[in-house]
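Ticket opened by: R.M.
Priority: normal
Category: complex prediction / small molecule

The reporter submitted a protein together with magnesium ion and asked that the result be attached to this ticket for the collaborator who will pick it up next week. Submitted input follows.
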Amino acid sequence: MFGKMSVRDLDVAGKTVFMRVDYNVPLNERQEVTDDTRIRASLETIGLLLDRGAKLILASHLGRPKGQHKLELGLKPVADRLAELVDHPIRFAQDCVGDEVKELADNLIPGEILLLENLRFHAEETSNDPEFSAALASLAELYVNDAFGTAHRAHASTEGMTKHFAQRAAGLLLERELTFLGGFLMNPNRPACGLLGGAKIGGKLPVIENLIKNLDTLMIGGGMAFTFFKALGLGIGESMVDESMMEIALQTIRNAKKDKHDIQLPVDVVIAREIADGTKVQVVLPTDIPDGWMGLDIGPKTIERYSDVIQASKSVFWNGPMGVFEVPSFARGTHSLAKVIAETTAQGATTVIGGGDSVAAITSLSLTDGFTHVSTGGGASLEFMEGKMLPGVAALSDAKEAMV
Ligand code: ADP
Ligand code: MG
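Result attached by the on-call engineer:
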């Protein structure tokens, strides 16, 4: 598992464990958790720790309170939801540091959980302040990180506080992320293909350079395709474009050609004059987008081509929707390929999906079970695929230390 210590290797009986979790969940006006996926995702590691007799402290951020104590971003609703999901007593601390919290932590007994208030109520969390880090660390004897979504940030709870612990382990969720994303980067079953789309080309182009080395085919779709088309000199009408990335896009294509890597762009696109369901659409060649029209989905020929590549693959990595899938008129590319990938998974391929919107797209189709691994981290999974060492991962103990 990428050479890092796992929570399974820790001797936790009777010890206080600080676990960084990702409880950045959506709340409604009545302060109720509207989607508890992330809370349920943490239950496996929580169960393991409590079964082994740990005293467990859980900490997370929620939203962007920017160092203010914002009542509406408090974690109490999460504590309530968690209490419905686990059979262990749960205490809730009104803050994440300070005397009261310390006392609650010191009085924990094995099998109990203490959930701390939103870490980002203190600006020192994101500024990775050493004193704040030390205060967090003073609460526990062992450290576990199970929040992959923030592992690309060097914050007090993901990086600063870890310096105070001899043993720093990956939780089961984080471990699974490293196993699947790492496996994909290092040694995917061949043939391997990647599917990149969505809007944020700035964050995604650097991934291509690294990812393509281990892929047999990389297919581009979504809004980012039009930056490539414009860079190649085509007229793209009103389509989404990031002019600042055009030069790099061109370079990426040149490098791929030079190294004989197969990069594919859409061969047809669905265009419209406005982003509205039921509006008049046309399917055209990428060379034929008229002024005033914009490309909003990949066309049927592209779907066919990309499907063939996916079906012939043993590994598939997907990040970024193929079109404006939120609007039914432009959802066909994303939905069709999601179904093809799910079928390919059923035939034994390893399939990995990352990216907030991409995951939302397959969730709305109830297809999350059709993927081998659904990555919880948007930015984190991209930075990982780019080949960067994530600070929250680098901070964990090496696996060999687990043996001593
Ligand atoms: P992810 O969150 O999966 O990483 P991004 O955030 O990069 O994906 O992009 C998702 C957004 O891209 C979606 O909201 C989708 O509507 C938009 N998008 C996809 N294709 C196009 C397009 N052709 N034109 C404009 N927006 C697009
Ligand atoms: Mg997104």
